[in-house]
Design brief:
about 110 residues, GIY-YIG endonuclease, about 40% helix, globular
Length: about 110
């Protein structure tokens, strides 16, 4: 028998993947890079806002409207590991540094807003 209480507790202790993701609409289109402490959640939210025409990034929204969801490619390009020190809970600064380093190596890429 499955112990639902134990599974629920295990789920609560699971840490989401964090890192960088890119969005593009084909090989010769603009590349956008974003970061997230919860990659799956942010990527899903980004898809939903773009599909609803409500994304804050005007250029990204315009590209989505032009090329469509069927041409959108979202890739996780780098994952950031959690520190062994369990007391650290805020990784935003680390993710911003990682994004800046990625942008230095990929001129022309834009930040996802």
């Amino acid at each position: 028998m499955v112990d639902k209480k134990a599974l629920k507790e295990l789920y609560k202790q699971t840490k989401p993947d964090m890192g960088l993701f890119t969005i593009s609409f084909g090989p010769d289109t603009q590349v956008y890079v974003g970061f997230a402490a919860d990659l799956r959640g942010v990527i899903n939210g980004t898809r939903a806002r773009l599909a609803g025409g409500m994304h804050a990034g005007a250029r990204l929204q315009a590209d989505f409207d032009k090329y469509g969801a069927e041409n959108m490619v979202i890739e996780v390009v780098e994952r950031l590991a959690y520190d062994e020190d369990e007391s650290k809970t805020d990784y935003k600064e680390d993710l911003e540094v990682l994004q800046d380093m990625w942008l230095e190596n990929h001129p022309g890429a834009l930040k996802v807003k």
